[in-house]
Write a structure and sequence with these properties.
Layout: E1 4-5, E2 10-11, E3 16-17, E4 22-23, E5 28-29, E6 34-35, E7 40-41, E8 46-47, E9 52-53, E10 58-59, E11 64-65, E12 69-71, E13 76-77, E14 82-83, H1 97-100, E15 104-106, E16 111-112, E17 117-118, E18 123-124, E19 129-130, E20 135-136, E21 144-147, E22 152-157, E23 163-164, E24 179-182, E25 186-189
The chain binds zinc ion (ZN).
The site of zinc ion has 8 residues, from loops.
């Protein structure tokens, strides 16, 4: 294994971490976490039990990835963004946590802005883009750009991170990838390329 864990961080026994992954200062990876290759975790990051994280994921400072959350490859978590895993917590009425956790899935390539919140039980589509401070409380389509509290869709984002203007052109001005808007608010890339 050739990953890097800073001396100030805790990697609990049993945790799986892929090659080339880096975990920086004051972080904690719990024993049943599974983390892929070439990920980068900033300062003060927590990864809970049974959390699955793909390859090439980038997590900025002060992010807690609680049990119930799954991140696919190349997800970006902005600084101090928040995941949750319990819809109705009460300190005075504790539940069996394993039964109350709702799953959150963040799909391939999507980005979550600084200080945004992803309420549990939601799926963030691939290459979606969540603006800083947004609160996501329902499923997000692929390539959708979401902003506000609660978040609503304000547009579409290209794979490359450039905002698309579909009324003007189906092609990204920055990288020339082409898209097609289907029924049911579904955007697909025409000729798939990386
Ligand atoms: Zn583009």
């Amino acid at each position: 294994m050739t990953f890097f864990i800073h001396d100030s961080s805790y990697l609990d026994e049993g945790a799986k971490v892929g090659n080339g992954t880096k975990v920086w200062h004051f972080s904690h990876i719990m024993s049943k976490a599974e983390i892929g290759e070439k990920c980068n975790f900033g300062q003060n990051v927590f990864v809970g039990n049974n959390v699955k994280i793909g390859n090439g994921v980038k997590v900025q400072n002060n992010v807690s990835i609680y049990e119930g959350v799954e991140l696919e490859d190349y997800v970006f978590c902005g600084p101090s963004m928040v995941f949750t895993n319990d819809m109705n917590p009460r300190a005075a009425f504790p539940k069996d946590p394993r039964q109350s956790y709702l799953k959150t899935l963040v799909k391939y390539g999507s980005s979550i802005g600084a200080n945004a919140t992803i309420v549990c039980g939601t799926t963030v589509g691939k290459w979606a883009f969540i603006a800083a401070g947004a609160v996501i409380n329902k499923d997000v389509p692929d390539y959708a750009m979401m902003a506000g509290v609660p978040a609503r869709q304000i547009g579409w984002m290209c794979k490359c991170g450039n905002k698309l203007d579909l009324e003007e052109s189906q092609q990204c001005k920055s990288c020339n990838r082409e898209y097609e808007l289907l029924k049911d608010n579904q955007l697909v890339e025409k000729s798939v390329q990386l």
